[in-house]
Every structure is written in structure tokens, then in C-alpha cells.
Amino acid sequence: MRICNISRLQDKWKVYEFKVGLLIIVNDAKLSDEDKLEEIRKNTIPFKSERTNQIKQGLASNCERFQRQMSALVLYTLNPEAAYRYFDGLYRELRTLYYAGNRFASKLKSLDKSQESTEVEYKKALNEWLESVNDENIHEIDFNIISNWLYCLNKAHEFRGVDILWSKLSKSQHHNALIASSYCYSLKQRGQHYVAQSIFEKLKDYHKVSSLGEEVDMQLLELEELIVKDIEPKRASVLTNMLANQPKSNDELRQRYCEIRSKKLTDIVTIVEEPNSTIDSFLYEQLRLIMKEIQLRKSNLNKKLDKNNNKVSHRIINEDSINDWVTSLFDHRLSYIGLSCRDQKRGGRSGSTDSKNPGEIDFFLCGNNNERIAIMEAFRLFSNDTTVIDSHLNKIAGYDQECLNPVFIIAYCDVSNFIDLCDKYYSDTKIRDYIGFEKSASQDDNIQSIKSSQTVNYFKEVRYRGRKPIVIYHMMINLRFEG
Known about the structure:
Elements: H1 2-26, H2 33-42, H3 54-78, H4 80-94, H5 97-113, H6 119-132, H7 143-155, H8 159-168, H9 171-174, H10 177-189, H11 193-207, H12 214-230, H13 233-242, H14 250-262, H15 265-272, H16 279-296, E1 302-304, E2 314-316, H17 319-334, E3 340-346, E4 360-366, E5 372-381, H18 386-394, H19 396-399, E6 407-413, H20 418-431, E7 438-439, E8 448-452, E9 456-465, E10 468-478
Parallel strand pairs: 5-6, 6-10
Antiparallel strand pairs: 1-2, 3-4, 4-5, 7-9, 8-9, 9-10
Helix pairs in contact: 1-3, 2-3, 3-4, 4-5, 5-6, 6-7, 7-10, 10-11, 11-12, 16-17
């Protein structure tokens, strides 16, 4: 019995010796790829001639597969199509995610190498990959494979698929520079330059680094140039139109621009908008335009559910992802006058009077001196769920100790009858009490409809915190997508 165990250990050591020998060849910098392949082929597979011993035949098969794997890794650069055939054969034998991922990578490398690869070929490679990953936990898939997945979706022009995959990834996957770079490349291809830049900047803040590598730095420089070209003509011309009466030097223009940006927000609003504009009316108008942009991206903000009676249904994605869009669009529109949107900061109390946990603030709108000027609370609505609505409205005063004015309540709605939902929301809000707020005795301060359609419903009211009047905008957005 002891002799038998020693013999098995010796056999295992022969396998290790064979594999280590191949690894040394593959990592030998002095050998060319052609020489590596030749040396790999020269290595004799142990136990190959002992056909009657099943255990040794199993060891021989294991070594033979490892030899093919090493050949495929060398061929990946030299001849990716040949590497694909090796990994395809290995995958069909063992059906492992490792071989599926390497087969996928080899196919993409082969398609990229060819000057004649078509969108159809990338879609075929994508479908083959999706078949192999059907039952896998997406959060456990290697970062490199996820990056290739995003890249292939982009090459196949499956941009909705890119956004859906991104929304399913974990935070650790979002914080991986390789994955984020692949997603931002897709955003850049679609002209969403500011969103891509925001993701990279947040990634640098998360990792507490000034650079994410030379390749990402080059992308950021390119994005900055594209963003300058994207600036709205109206916004870009606001300041120059004011100074158009006589020629000004660049130094004079720069001085005037800095003077305007340094002014109080109440003054800036009357400069860039109408003379009688207020901060709350200006911010409302900006958010109205942003919600219009969000509406245009409705298909990207929904995920496909399982078929029901042969009909594909959709559901809006989690609110944090939609909030990211709102933040990016706000910053993109208003950074020229120093305004910014800060999302999901911790502070204050939660909505429940019994809770001791900190509430989560969806958005603070900040002025050019980084001071907080307004607050936004956003949530999804799948029905007239008064519990959900009340919980969000009741927590505002708890985490806003400054009594900020105005307040924006944004509801991302996914219901079959949007108008009916808005009517119920309006009726309930007329009699609804918010913790920390008092109703006004003035009829003019009661909730009023300021815009009503099949896509958006906006209401405005005034309530009081102590003696201070607070303008509250309720913005209901229909994000239901029928496909």
C-alpha cells in the first residue's frame, strides 16, 4: 500500500515537472514565439504510451491539454485564429469559463487583426460567448473578460447591451480601470463625452491617484477636447454676446469672464438668463431641460425582463444609475458658471423619526464657491405607493439643516397609466404633511400644476421651515419603455 502511494506521488511530480518545463519555455524572453512553439512540441507527454493504466492515461490527458493551452497562449499574438481553434477544442472538452474567456479573447484578437471584419462577425463572436456564460455569476467573472465583453458589444454596435451590462456589474468591477476604460470608450463612440470624463474622474478619486495610466490619460485628454467642441452654442455665446459691442483682447475677455463667475449666484442668474430670473426658476428650467435629455435616453435606462406570454417587458434600472446621468448632465450644462451637482453624500438623519442611521442625500446642487444652494431627492415609482413617497419626502428636513431653497423632488415613474399616477400624486400631496415643514395659509402657496403631458408632470408648492418659505418642485418623469 505504501509503495503504491509513493508511486502515485512520483507520477504527480512527473506531471508538475512537465508543466513547469512548459511554463519556463513560454516565459523565456530570449526565445521567439516560433521557437517557443517548437520547444513546446518537443516536450514528450508523460505516460502517453501506458494505455492500459487508466490513472496514468488521465494524467497524460491532463498534460496534453496543458501543452495545447501553452501553445494557444503563444499563438494568441502570433496567430490568434489558431489560438482560437486550440481554446475552442479545450472548451468543448471541459466547458470551463477559463477556456471560454480565452476563446472569446482569441476570436476578438483575430477579428481586430483582420482589416475586413464586419459587425456581423463581432455579433457572432458575442453570441458564442453568451452561450458559454449563460449560467455564470457575472460578479465572479475575470476583469479582462468583462472588458472584452464590453468591447465586443461596442464593436457590434449593441450600445443598449453595453449600458445593461454596465448596470449589472458590481462596485468593484466599476472601480476597475480596465472595465471602466472599455465602457468609457463606448460612451465616447456615442458622443457622451462628459459622462465618460466624469466616470474617469470619479475613478481617480476612488483610487486616490492622479493618473490611471498612460492609455487612460490619453483618453481623458481626447475627451476634454471633444467636450469643448460639444458645448452648447447658446451657453458658449452668452458671455461673448455681452461683450460684442467692441473688440476685446483675450486678457480683457478673461477678466470679464472671471468677474462674472465670481459674482453671487443671484447676479449670475440675471446675467445669463432674464433680468427678473430667480435662483429657483433658473434651476427649475435647467432641470426641466435635463429631464428632457433623460427622456431621450429612456431605452438606455430600462433593462429587459424575461418574456411574458411571448412579449418582452422592461423595467427601469436602479435609481443610482439614473442619478449618475442627471449628475453628469447637470455638470455638463452648468459647469461654465461654476455650478455642480454632488450626488449621494452622507449626512443628517433618515426619514424615520425612530431611526438613528444617517440618511443618504441624493443630490446637493452647489454654487461657484462650493456652497450648497439646493437639494434634490430622487426615487423610482412603480405605483402610487404612499409609503415610498412619504419616506422620501419626510427625510428631507432631517438631512438638510441649512433649510436650502429650492427643493426638487424627482420621481422616475414606470407605470402603465402615467396620467392617473400623477393625478393621485397631486391629490395626495395637497393634504400630505412633511416632517419638518409647515403648510402655508396662502392659497397661492398650495401645490399647482406647471406642466402636464404624457411624458412629464411638474408641480410647484411653497412650504415653510420656521418662517422661511421653501419652494418645492415635484418633477414626475415617465420612463416606461415598451420596447
